[in-house]
Amino acid sequence: MPKGYCIAHLTVTDAASYPKYREAAGAAIAAYGGRFLVRAGQYELPEGGSHERHVILEFESFEQAKKFYHSPEYQAAVKLRQATSDSTFVIVEGAD
Prior knowledge:
Layout: E1 4-12, H1 18-31, E2 35-39, E3 53-59, H2 62-70, H3 72-84, E4 85-93
Antiparallel strand pairs: 1-3, 1-4, 2-3
């Protein structure tokens, strides 16, 4: 069964409040068995436009990644993310 991935691109707009999102999201990620593959860090942008932070989470399956995103725990965190950053978020099924 292919793994599931959540990919987020963010530009923080409220650095003072953003840690509240990180804390809430971290608890939800752990509760649904996710793990960080990419968490901000150094990057290079050879083409196109971009945000300043990039995050890739891995879950045991596409279904588990969707359960995480739609969970009450993460939906509470989403409100914090949207209030403190400009972001995009995608859930992707991995290759077999």
